[in-house]
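Sequence, structure tokens passed on for absentees:
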Amino acid sequence: MDTENPSAPARAQSRIRGKNHPDGQPVAGVVHDHVRHTENFTVIGNDLAQHPELSLLAIGLACYIQSVRRGTAVDIKTLATRFPEGPTRIAAALRELEAHGYLRRTRERTPTGRIVTRTVSCNRPGHRGAREQAARRPARRTAPDEPAPRKRLPAVPQPSRPWPALLRTALEVLSSLRRHDPRLLLSATDAEHLAPGVAAWLERDLTPTAVRHALTANLPDEPLIRPAALLAHRLTAQLPPPPPRPPAAPAPDPRHPLQTCDGCDRAFRAPAPGRCRDCRAEYSVAG
């Protein structure tokens, strides 16, 4: 009977998979030391984690957004407070995710009139929900180098007449808005479109300062994608009523036709033929 060797291992040691090549040489690159999660974890697809076109910041933001609970604020201001990259880089990363289908952002108006951004996170772009949404949008063939068509601005109120002085003042009001909020920098085309709306306000006895305050008060915190569209909406939705009209002047006394007096042949005004005032007085005394 063989003698037991106490120094021999109880079983052959298994090689850690991926640590060495079959010839025993170490493997270059990462070696995973994984522990299976059973709670507090999020499943992230490799199509996102290893996306060949997204930046590292965009991938990280997508992973963070997919990990938070429903209803968590993921606007630029909140994310810039949470992470050190700053609003400019975070905004660019969110646009990357939007372009590749990992985010859908729509602007909606609350019952109080405030504009908010609704964000939908997609962990698999192109799945059924995304395809159905895309199918509802009208198809349009666009050449690769053709710029996207610019969406028309909403209509604005019009003044009763194209008063040149009011339109000049309106353009001055619009050009001054950027001094109150840099996001309200308007192009010349947008300013010309909005100027009649501002003129309609000025025509209703509002001062330029009052119009400027109405257009810049309570703006949303997030970046303004189309500031001219927001201003056009405010000019229409918040248009004040016309000023009260002054009371009408009393109607003048009726002007009677000329009559010839039956007593003295003198002309006088009266609604019907007869005697003038003097003849009526003499007639009454004589009678």
About this structure: Confidence is low (pLDDT under 50) at residues 1-18, 139-147. The domain at 46-135 is CATH 1.10.10 (Arc Repressor Mutant, subunit A).
